[in-house]
Amino acid sequence: MNARDIMEISPIVPVIALEDEKDALPLAKALQKGGVNIMEITLRTPAGLKAIEIVSKELPSMNVGAGTVCNEEDLIKAKKAGAKFVFSPGISQELINASKKEEITLIPGVATASEVMLAQNNNIFYCKLFPATLSGGVEILKAFAGPFPKMNFCPTGGVNLNNLNDFLILKNVLCVGGTWFVPKDEIIINNFEEITSLCKEAINSIKV
Ligand code: 3PG
Q1: Contact call for residues 64 and 32 (beta carbons, < 8 A)
Q2: 26, 64, 163, 178: which sits with the fewest CB atoms below 10 Å from its CB?
Q3: 128 an active-site residue?
Q4: Is 19 a catalytic residue?
Q5: Using an 8 Å Cβ cutoff, are 176 and 164 in contact?
Q6: Can you give the CATH number for the domain in which 58 is found?
Q7: ipTM of the complex
């Protein structure tokens, strides 16, 4: 799956940290019901890899990727678990080389002009902006549009219902990532109906 197709699946990309892999499937179904057919399941909890494996086996219609992939070892484990793509909070030559070797699409995180240059010098034109609001938010994305006209972003980190349109209106933004519509507390109490309605609320609030 190429990076553009991944970033066009849904305007909102859930960043998920699961404490219990048993929550992965009901969460995936709740997201689909809410109109979101992509999941970034992060490797920052021990349940992450198993959760990716469950969703990729049990619900192949869901586009499941791994998040918080920080090095080659993470990337290999994510691919073996069934991730269709990987997201990283940052960018490194090691990770880029690993994604080429393993033939799995990497969407790295960037926050500076030098990092954008590293991406595009490796033919990567789809990146996260992370952490989006702290690294300059809408203003840095507008600034990047000048020197980097081919670069496309998925701002993540600090995005919410109040500012998602400010990002999505930008030409170099294809989607936004975040946790606001997959709250940990609701997952823990298995309130998946709430997650479906938060997805719908977010999608219905998009004006662009
Ligand atoms: C993260 O990696 O935790 C994401 O950037 C999500 O950030 P958010 O909680 O601000 O949406």
Answers
A1: no
A2: 26
A3: yes
A4: no
A5: yes
A6: 3.20.20.70
A7: 0.90
User: Which residue segment(s) compose the domain that 33 sits in?
Assistant: 3-199
Domain count, the chain: 1
Is the CB of residue 178 below 6 angstroms from any atom belonging to ligand 1? yes
Q: Is 92 in the pocket of ligand 1 (CB under 6 A)?
A: no
- Tell me the CA–centroid distance for residue 77 and ligand 1, in Å: 22
Q: What percent of the chain has pLDDT over 70?
A: 100
Helix (H, G, I), strand (E, B) or coil at 50: helix
- Tell the residue nearest (CA) to atom 8 of ligand 1: 157
Long-range contacts: 184-190, Cβ < 8 Å, 24+? Answer: 184/17, 184/19, 187/16, 187/18, 187/19, 187/23, 187/27, 188/19, 190/23, 190/26
CB 22 within 8 A of CB 45: no
C-beta 66 within 6 A of ligand 1: no
Start-end of H helices in 9-111: 24-33, 48-58, 72-81, 93-102
pLDDT digits (tens, 9 = 90+) for 168-206: 999 999 999 999 999 999 999 999 999 999 999 999 999
In this prediction, residue 208 carries a pLDDT of 87
Looking at every residue in the chain, the average pLDDT score rounds to 98
| Rg value, the chain, Cα | 16
204 assigned to some structural domain: no
The kind and range of the H/E element at 186 are helix 184-188
Task: Identify whether the C-beta of residue 170 lies closer than 8 Å to the C-beta of residue 138.
Answer: yes
